[in-house]
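fyi for ur records
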Amino acid sequence: MSETSDHATPAAVPGLRYIADWLTPHTGAALLASIDAASWSAQLKRRVQHYGHRYDYGRRSVAADSAESAPPLPEWARELAARLVAEKLMDDKAEQVIVNEYQPGQGISAHVDCVPCFGPVVAAISLGSSCLMDFTDPADNTKLAVPLAPGSLLVMAGPARYTWRHAIAPRKSDPGAAGRVPRGRRVSVTFRTILP
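which gave:
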């Protein structure tokens, strides 16, 4: 198993693109306020919001039942989805947006976003606190830690989307160049297209 001791550059993961300051601090704060004005689901250990289509975690599929349908994408999500296409970061406008809230000590296990459910590009905005996202290549267990700063955008395509698993360790701080970096509340906003 090879593991890096320093934080990886996103280019070390094929198909991964990281854009720092994709949102200005003011825009990020306004987006977070809009998100917090909506209701949250507590069906998981962390709070979530689903828009466009609800992801069924138990079945690992997009919910087809109209009783489980999600509200349509709000205006802020439609605008950001259009910007992702205009900047050629996604080929098509996202039809599904999931908002995840992570309090210090919360994380998400290693996974690849549902391959039969979602399209070839997944884009995620980080708001609030920074954190490290771990990417692991299952071929040789290479593990790379990618720092995600508030306002940044992470775009996963190719091997980063389909092969490498990504995770956030459930801890209250992350290693940094000058010691441990405490985590605060982090909110991620993930944009995905739905496969027919």
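The CA atoms of residues 84 and 90 lie 6 Å apart. thats all i got for now
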